[in-house]
Amino acid sequence: MGDRKQAGDEEFRAFVAGRWPRLMRTAFLLTGEQHAAEDLVQSTLEKAYVAWRRVGSADDPEAYVRRVMINTHARRHRRKLREFLAPRDDSGIAREVPDSGDHISRAEDRGLLLQALAQLPPRQRQAVVLRYWEDLTETQAAEAMGCSVGAVKSNTAKGIAKLRAIPELADTVMYGGRK
């Protein structure tokens, strides 16, 4: 029994070590604050550790943990879902080693982009973060958000439309191949 627990602990440690930067990035984009993101990841990983036998044996443990993160975030902010604040600083993301395919990490004015993202309603923000930062399919995003694929499509489209309407972003970010 002790060997099984020790193997599970090692598997969990390896999972955390491999996923930490991505979990922190997602949490930061959801919360808009470095300390809130750290708290969210910590709470998420606590829940994942307690249920690691179930999580580790899931088809996609990362998707399972992502769903836990989104549910944890939604519960924490259920009363204040419309009160997302603009990120105070993006130092947490700056320390992260960006994925080579993460075009957002190369944006000239990351702060402006993060502030614009923070202005989106919560569900639109979640959909945009999951679809474009996490590069999830609509089905994966729907599973993570606990909603239908249609709701993901709708929230993503509305969120992108709102981002496109911000004049300051027009000079910084390319949309659909156009500047």
Automatic annotation (TrEMBL):
Keyword Transcription regulation assigned: yes
Entry keyword set: DNA-binding, Sigma factor, Transcription, Transcription regulation
Annotated GO MF terms: DNA binding; sigma factor activity
InterPro entries the UniProt entry points to: RNA_pol_sigma-70-like, RNA_pol_sigma-70_dom, RNA_pol_sigma-E_actinobac, RNA_pol_sigma70_r2, RNA_pol_sigma70_r4_t2, RNA_pol_sigma_r2, RNA_pol_sigma_r3/r4-like, WH-like_DNA-bd_sf
Domain spans labelled RNA polymerase sigma-70 region: 21-80
SUPFAM superfamilies in the record: Sigma2 domain of RNA polymerase sigma factors (SSF88946), Sigma3 and sigma4 domains of RNA polymerase sigma factors (SSF88659)
A Pfam family: Sigma70_r4_2
Domain RNA polymerase sigma factor 70 region 4 type per the UniProt entry, residue ranges: 112-163
Keyword Lipid biosynthesis annotated: no
Gene Ontology BP, a term: DNA-templated transcription initiation
Protein name: SigE family RNA polymerase sigma factor
Species the sequence originates in: Streptomyces actuosus
